[in-house]
Amino acid sequence: MSPFFVMSLLFGLTFGQTASLCAPSEYTIHVEKRECAYCLAINTTICAGFCMTRDSNGKKLLLKSALSQNVCTYKEMLYQTALIPGCPHHTIPYYSYPVAVSCKCGKCNTDYSDCVRERVRTNYCTKPQKLCN
């Protein structure tokens, strides 16, 4: 291999990891319960952005450690709780949701992340809407 090719490869791998654009991003969650009179629109932050991955077309030739499919995921998060208005007394009117404090490119953890991109829009209200900041 030529020294130019090796240097180009090393530069590409180094720059590729630093070029990841994964950061907290504003997002609105719409929450409603069947028993409650209103839908609550909650402004929060989620992790979103671009992370470098390595193409797995050569997976038979490479070690598993050389293959990485990184996603933009939570590095640090906290949970907040909102009160859904218009709920009867027998209903628990609280909803807890994650707030991204910082993000990283890494493996998707299904314990707290949805690792599949949703194609159908389900984040909407069917009842009158109230805004929560």
Quick summary:
The protein is 12% helix and 41% strand.
Alpha-carbon distance between the two ends? 57 Å
**Which spans have pLDDT < 50 for at least 5 consecutive residues?**
none
Number of folding domains?
Answer: 1
Helical content class? 10-25%
Q: So, the CATH homologous superfamily?
A: Cystine-knot cytokines
Rg is 21 Å
Query: Which outline best applies?
Result: elongated
What's the mean pLDDT score? 77
Order of helices and strands: HEEEEE
Tally of helical runs: 1
Strand content: 35-45%
Query: What structural class should be given to the helix and strand makeup?
Result: mainly beta
- What is the spatial order of strands in the main beta sheet? 1-2-5
Which key terms come to mind for this protein?
single chain; 133 residues; mainly beta; Cystine Knot Cytokines, subunit B; three-stranded mixed sheet; two-stranded antiparallel sheet; 1 helix; 41% strand; elongated; secreted; hormone; signal
